[in-house]
């Protein structure tokens, strides 16, 4: 049901996204197998894709799904593959059968690759144990009269923002005599950036009189 909001009347919304971000956006016509979801394909420069994803998240946040949602769950491979001692095996019944050479070679090649280190970061003493970006924290303050649009009924909006951004978001209790509430966002820089974007979108929507709690 959210695809309609994403496309807009006569395709107006998706056209607006394409023009404002420079990314190509395509919504699949058919639903994914055994689900009520449709695939959305985004292509373009990394920056264009990021901006487009942010705008899609805002649309999803402001247009909750109507009716029951059946999520798409991809089926696992028919024969699971395990790797042991540089050899690939497929599981057949109760036995592990050696797998064709191609998968074994692919696994060996992957094990030989040097772990990727982002610019500005040092290689960890134990490669692979610290590959994720370090978590950081960002704090912002929101006026008490606007905090409701961020939280939503029974915490629905703040939970949606947490799920979409992947960040941990904590809202401090109201302080006596203070007209503001403090919000603490924790996560990777990308998580924090998306959480801030979604919070600002909620505030803008509320201030312009378009928000619904």
Automatic annotation (TrEMBL):
InterPro entries: KH_dom, KH_dom_type_1, KH_dom_type_1_sf
Pfam families recorded: KH_1
Highest taxon, organism lineage: Eukaryota
Molecular function per GO: RNA binding
Keywords, alphabetical: Repeat, RNA-binding
SUPFAM superfamilies documented for this protein: Eukaryotic type KH-domain (KH-domain type I)
Residue stretches making up the K Homology domain: 1-61, 134-204
PANTHER family on file: KH DOMAIN CONTAINING RNA BINDING PROTEIN
Record protein name field: Poly(RC) binding protein 3
Species in which this protein is naturally found: Iconisemion striatum
